[in-house]
Amino acid sequence: NIAHNGVLRSLPASIQQLTRLQEIQIINCPALEHVAVESEVGKMKLSHNQERVCVLPTSLKRLSISYCNGIKSLPQGIHQLTNLQELDISNCHGLEQWCELEENKMKLAHIEKKVCVLWRSSSY
Predict the structure, then answer these.
(1) β pairing state of 36-38 and 52-54
(2) Does the predicted model carry a pTM greater than 0.85?
(3) Backbone angles phi, psi at 18, to 5 degrees
(4) Which DSSP string corresponds to the chain?
(5) Domains of the chain, start order
């Protein structure tokens, strides 16, 4: 679990070395912007518009992200996580919108169980 971290902006690339990791829960990390890292050539980072690479281990079966409003999209390589069976996204406004775009639904088509929920509070 990665939880209640107000300074984490992206997952470390070293997470990919956890080759047997099957589940990640990311909860209440408001500064988290990416579930990926920027590509690097040597020590020089590529320009801002360059693609971010998916650093999640391919062994991953379940990914749960909640209360992380800084995340606006999943990495382009999400379709490469062929073992991913469950994606649970809740209370991540930008991420729920990303999941609803037709072009992104194809990237998630291989995932058996997808839950994208935004809880809206009502004020009376």
Answers:
(1) antiparallel
(2) no
(3) -85, 75
(4) -EES-SS--B--GGGGG-TT--EEEEES-TT--BSEEE-EETTEEPPTTSPEEE-S-TT--EEEEES-TT-----GGGGG-TT--EEEEES-HHHHHHHHSHHHHGGGTT-SEEEEE-------
(5) 12-36+52-117 (3.80.10.10)
Encoding tokens for residue 93? 């406004």
pLDDT tens, residue order, the chain (124 aa)? 999 999 999 888 888 889 999 999 999 999 998 886 544 443 334 444 445 556 788 899 999 999 998 988 887 778 888 999 999 988 888 787 788 888 888 888 889 888 887 654 434 3
Amino acid at 40: E
* Helix ranges restricted to H, the chain: 93-100, 102-105
